[in-house]
Amino acid sequence: GSSLFFPLPCLPCSRRSPAAAALLLSLCLGFPPSSAACPPFCLCASDIISCSGRNLSTLPLDLPGYATRLDLSHNGLTTLPADWNAQPFSRLATLILSWNSISQIEPDAFALTPHLLHLDLSSNRLEILNASIFRGLEELQVLLLFGNQIAQINPGAISELHSLQRLYLSGNRLTDFPLELYRGPAGPRNLTFLDLSSNRLLQLPVQSLLALSAQQQGGIYLQGNPLVCNCALLAMLDYWVWKQYRPLVDFGAGYPCGLSGDGVGSQPDCPGSQQEVSSTFLEAGTYRVEPGECLRLECPGLAPSTQGKLEVFWVTPRAVLHSSANDTSGHFLILPNGTLEIRGALLEDSGVYLCVAARGRRYHPGESLEVSVSVGNSTVASAGGLAHGSGAEHFNTAFTTLASCVVSIVLVLLYLYLTPCRCREGRGGGGGGAARGCGGRAILLCSDPREVDSGERRSNGKRVAFLEPQAVRDSDECGPKTQAMNSAHGATEGILKNGSRTVGQTLTDAAHMA
């Protein structure tokens, strides 16, 4: 066979270069051109590329696509266009764009980085977060935006960041708390860390923050904001002090209301705080109520004679209630003295309840603001904050109750039928007496055969008594319930009783039953 030959163009010696020669040689040998090489103004170490501090005003278009970490910090970049690189980064996990002058990010600018986990845009000039600014970053976990000029977060700006866990917005110009980060159906589902320190926040949604801080592991940082110290804010900070909330423990000096690392000094004159606070040790209470009944829970640490408009929040298993937003026809009602009234208790009302109020005091180790409520046979969660019922807990409780009943019945039968009992046959004459022997009197427990003969009963004879379970009940109207005994001290009465401790009416004499 014949072979085809394509002559290469002859270039003058002065125009030849090693790179061009290598490219022509690879084409002649049938090899495709290799991936983009490391730019001459960057440092490349395997899959790490650093172009930091190179006074770049525009992004290079020939960055290698194999990079897993790209550092473009400390440059003069002003815009991040949609086509800022010639090829996508299929492996890029960390992108650092801090300490630039970026004020605009075009839509789909991050379509080239679909697997990005860490994005650093700190110390730039961003003012508004638009709805499409972070499109395509569904796997992003950490977003750094501190040190910008952000004053507005439009709805939907964070909606596609489903995997976001940590968000840093410190040192911006925000005046409103961004509740849309938590409320919307889209957006972050696992956001456990939010830094809003050193912004321009004046007011806080205390009722929503109580629910968020009870659920989150990392916390919400709010130090360094010009917050207006009122009774609602003081109540939340007081609760955070008791809970040893990490943002408050680490940065207590950055909060208002005279807050320090080990206590709260109240500036506003809040009813129920300081001189009106109860000096008694705060202990966790446990209450038991039947479904449909009414129950009142007193706020621990508040004096019963407190007068004035109280700022009281109750963190219940299903929601956070505020005294200023009472619904008199609702299921829950906060009374003027801070007591929570549960009207017509439901099984799902079981759980841990927390009373958040401006007590203005230091808490001792072991003190608790929790009140546990058990409705019917429901179990009570032991964790603080919002207590959520679990179907597995109800199943375990029912299974344990059933097993206890079966064991109790077996023990009763063994006790009744295996207890030695000598019975006289033929008493009363004829076969009737034999028929009314031990088999006819099996339910009677004889302690001594002589007692049967003489018809006498001694006080030390064995008895069987079935007791109704004792429950804490109340009238139809709401009133303070008696606290249930602790499990360590209030064991349930057994179904077998000794004759010397007879409860109720004893069994009829054996002679009368024969």
Distance between the termini: 122 Å
Helix content: 10-25%
Q: Could you tell me the number of beta strands?
A: 23
* CATH fold-level assignment of the domain at 34-200: Leucine-rich repeat, LRR (right-handed beta-alpha superhelix)
Mean pLDDT across residues? 74
The CATH architecture of the domain at 34-200? Alpha-Beta Horseshoe
Residue fraction in strands: 5-15%
Q: CATH homologous superfamily of the domain at 34-200? A: Ribonuclease Inhibitor
Main sheet record: 9 strands, mixed
Q: Walk across the major sheet and give the strand order.
A: 1-2-3-5-7-9-11-12-13
State the name of the first-level CATH class of the domain at 34-200.
Alpha Beta
Radius of gyration, Cα only, in angstroms?
38 Å
| Assembly context of the chains | single chain
Lay out the secondary structure:
Elements: H1 18-29, E1 43-45, E2 48-50, E3 69-71, E4 79-80, E5 94-96, E6 104-105, E7 118-120, E8 128-129, E9 142-144, E10 152-153, E11 166-168, H2 180-183, E12 193-195, H3 206-215, E13 219-221, H4 231-243, H5 246-250, E14 285-289, E15 295-297, E16 313-315, E17 320-322, E18 332-334, E19 340-342, E20 351-356, E21 370-375, H6 391-417, H7 430-435, H8 449-454, E22 463-464, E23 496-497, H9 510-513
Parallel strand pairs: 2-3, 3-5, 4-6, 5-7, 7-9, 8-10, 9-11, 11-12, 12-13, 14-21
Antiparallel strand pairs: 1-2, 15-19, 16-17, 16-20, 18-19, 20-21, 22-23
Short description:
This is Ig-like domain-containing protein. This protein is an alpha/beta fold.
